[in-house]
Design goal:
This is ABC transporter ATP-binding protein. The chain has a domain of 134 residues. A six-stranded mixed sheet has the order 5-6-7-3-8-9, sandwiched between helices. Strands 2-1-4 form a three-stranded antiparallel sheet, with helices on one face. Helix 4 packs across helix 5. It is α/β, with parallel strands linked by helices. The relative contact order is 0.18. Helix content is 37%, strand content 23%. The protein is built from eight helices and nine strands.
Amino acid sequence: MTMRIEIDNVAKGYPRADGSRLSVVGSLSTTIEAQEFICVIGPSGCGKSTLLGLLGGLRRPDDGEIRFVGERTAAGPLTSIVWQDYALIPWRSIADNVAFGLELRGVPAARRREVAREHLTMMGIEAFADNKPHELSGGMRQRAGIARALASDPEVLLMDEPFAAVDAQTRTLLQDELLQVWSRHRKTVLFITHSIEEALLLADRIIVLGPRPTRVVEEIRVPFPRPRTRDVELDPRFTELKRHLWAQLRDATLAAEWAEAKGDR
């Protein structure tokens, strides 16, 4: 057994300039099983990134509890994050970016270089190890971001809309590559996305969040077996689930817009 995540009635809000408080996450509960690939969808501004920050330890909940339960199997941190905007250090080479987490942990330089090269090779960008981030395309930079996150050997990989900033063709390639990488490493993954199709392709389970203060509206088990390819898009169940999820997302988005218009938020 490896670690699972138990999210128990977690709430989070932020102070407003007028002294009131904006409630973003409200009494949210769910469980993420070990080695499970979870995709989270919900209306814009509903608190998806706030939830990721809570899981990553970047924020503390105002109420409730997040528990990591089980046996540690990875040598690295509990969580590692892949950001939408890559978050690479511009003056460091790609290899040094990938090795950065290991450097912070005091891993010897020779071992850092070895691990960085292994993960750059895994992501197909080993030829660019000595380049700076600005010399790479968006897709290559995100591959480096994924390599950096995995090089730290976390228990849980948190991904905040990692493919949103790349073009459609690159996004397709990155999705396929992520499926291959996940099948080898079997990390627990929480992946935030606005794309229903992406969620159906990648996830074991999809968590649908409602408008602020966000709660779990529905959890859907994706029925397609693994290893998974794009052939699932031809399955009639794919279309049915896409329609169902879009209806849920549409209703949540309209509810959020209505609340905004009334000034309830």
